[in-house]
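Form 7-S
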Amino acid sequence: MEADENPLRKQLCRAASQLWQRRLTSGTGARVAVELHRRRYLATPDGRRLAGLNPGDLATVDLQGVDLLNARGTTLQTWAPHRIALDHGMRQTPEDIGAGRGRAIHATALAHPPRLLAFAAHANAQGANGIKLRGHTPVPLLDPADEPGLITAITTHSLVVLTGLGVFASGANLDATLASIEDAEAAAEITLTLRQLR
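Output:
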């Protein structure tokens, strides 16, 4: 581990812990990743709870999810959306972003916010292709295997629901990425409360 990585490692551990503390994920299926440099990324390790991670616990992976230091690697299914989003972000020029053909993406997260996933399950059962929440932009609902659909969705959406996998967020940094999950879960709670009041 390079010395200049340590602040980013600590920031990623804090972000992962916040997801767990705010009950936006459960179990060990969540993952948070952030761009390090030179096509290297820091990622939370497979099979570990996000609470209580230390900087040395994080994996340093390439774009394919291969651990460059410990040969642990990542599960392909849970790394795939991160790979797609980070690759998309890496290819964007300032002109693309300015013209609305892409977004700056340097951090990603796969989480399990309960209210948002409940709305997603309901929308999926109704055959809808997205979730509409009060005061929030629509959230696309995609099959995790739909790589072209995910590429299209992340061009304009910071958040998508991948059925059976979780809620996937991408953003310019860790704070923006986690904020998109928090905002959507808050909108889901407001929407649910308003429905109960009717």
